[in-house]
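Hey, I'm writing a tutorial for new members on how sequence and structure tokens pair up, and I'd like a real worked example in the thread rather than a made-up one. If someone can provide the structure for the chain below, I'll link this post from the tutorial.
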Amino acid sequence: MTIAIYPGSFDPITNGHLDILKSGAEIFDKVIIAVSYNANKQGFLPVDIRTKLIEESAKDIPNVEVDSFEGLTVEYAKKRGATVLLRGLRTSFDFEYEMQLSQTNHALYGDIKTVFLITKPEYNYISSSCVREILLNKGDIKGFVPDPVCEYLKSI
């Protein structure tokens, strides 16, 4: 059984993230979408809320598990028995950063492979920071995030 970890802050999860998650779930036996957090940093949404919103957004994908972790992604992957890190790409700028990260992770844990998936064109401009900016300026985020996230963010 091939287990993939899809790590990120997902603050909040976007439709682009969900698109990558769905594609990964079609390829791998199990995908663990893992919300990373740093106890020394304050996120936009608390980790438990992010995790709950991801669970609600991904409830129809049977081979997906939602979890959170602190520390190195490769150490978390080892602990969970994963051999693949799933990463999403929107643009060529993402690739430069992700390639360096992939090589660093491989140097730390030689058994891990990184698989890059490209989001659909209709999502390649969406980012969590963009969603936060729109929300903070009272703009409409519908179409940028899954419905459970949209409903929650409009309520705060």
